[in-house]
């Protein structure tokens, strides 16, 4: 699949993705990309975020490719039952451990627990070995439950601007490879 074959929906996490964040940069470069705008970025409410994402997916005119970061990952996973349009795949970056009692702010825990059912579309999960919001072992476990291809990003922090990932060229290359494996029609098998 080419980017032009899909509606690429950026799903930012807590506080949104600022102007230097890789999601914002990708959105500006990809002509078919748009962002899910949430009513409240700094006080996320799971049901509101999930419903807003489902609205965006269901309004799509082409197969959807979701690009989620941080709290955007559980938003995607919880929204799946509400999708009425085909989702070609999901690129899931830095899934936070929303069941970790030490996560801050505490209200992020309301996005847990993650459903552990296999995803109904191909997915790739990118995880760092020193992400302050989720241990690599957690990402490995949840990706396995979902049938998602796990990519080890090494010691990359939370893969955001604070960890030095503004443009994130390595991510661009991995995303391009992921896209190339997707089919324009609905596919219920994981990418390999």
Structural account:
The chain is of the alpha/beta class and 192 residues long. The chain has one domain (3-181): Rossmann fold, CATH 3.40.50.1820. The protein contains five helices and six strands. The protein has helices spanning 22-29, 46-58, 72-79, 136-146, 169-181; strands at residues 7-11, 33-35, 64-69, 87-93, 123-127, 149-152. It has a six-stranded parallel β-sheet with strand order 2-1-3-4-5-6, with helices on both faces. Strand 1, helix 1 (22-29) and strand 2 (33-35) form a beta-alpha-beta unit. Helix 2 crosses helix 3 (72-79). The radius of gyration is 15 Å and the shape is globular.
Task: Kindly summarize this structure in a few lines.
Strand 1 (7-11), helix 1 (22-29) and strand 2 (33-35) form a beta-alpha-beta unit.
Helical region count?
5
Please estimate the helix content: 25-40%
Distance between the termini: 15 Å
CATH architecture: 3-Layer(aba) Sandwich
Number of strands: 6
Give the biggest sheet.
6 strands, parallel
The outline comes out as globular
Structural class: alpha/beta
CATH level-four homologous superfamily name? Alpha/Beta hydrolase fold, catalytic domain
Rg value = 15 Å
Mean pLDDT: 93
* Topology order in helix (H) and strand (E) letters: EHEHEHEEHEH
Unreliable stretches:
186-192
Counting structural domains, the number is 1
CATH T-level fold name: Rossmann fold
Measured by DSSP, the beta-strand proportion falls in 15-25%
State the name of the first-level CATH class. Alpha Beta
């Amino acid at each position: 699949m080419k980017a032009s074959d899909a509606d690429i929906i950026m799903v930012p996490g807590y506080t949104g993705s600022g102007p230097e964040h890789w999601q914002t940069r990708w959105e500006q470069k990809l002509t078919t990309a748009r962002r899910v705008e949430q009513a409240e970025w700094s006080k996320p409410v799971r049901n509101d975020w999930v419903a807003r994402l489902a609205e965006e997916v269901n309004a799509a005119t082409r197969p959807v490719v979701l690009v989620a970061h941080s709290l955007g990952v559980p938003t995607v996973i919880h929204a799946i039952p509400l999708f009425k349009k085909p989702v070609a795949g999901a690129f899931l970056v830095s899934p936070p451990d929303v069941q970790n009692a030490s996560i801050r702010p505490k209200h992020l825990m309301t996005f847990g627990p993650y459903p552990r059912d296999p995803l109904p579309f191909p997915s790739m999960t990118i995880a760092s070995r020193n992400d302050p919001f989720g241990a690599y072992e957690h990402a490995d476990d949840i990706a396995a439950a979902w049938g998602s291809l796990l990519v080890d990003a090494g010691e990359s922090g939370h893969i955001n601007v604070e960890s030095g990932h503004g443009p994130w060229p390595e991510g661009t290359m991995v995303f391009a490879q992921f896209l190339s494996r997707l089919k324009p029609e609905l596919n219920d098998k994981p990418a390999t």
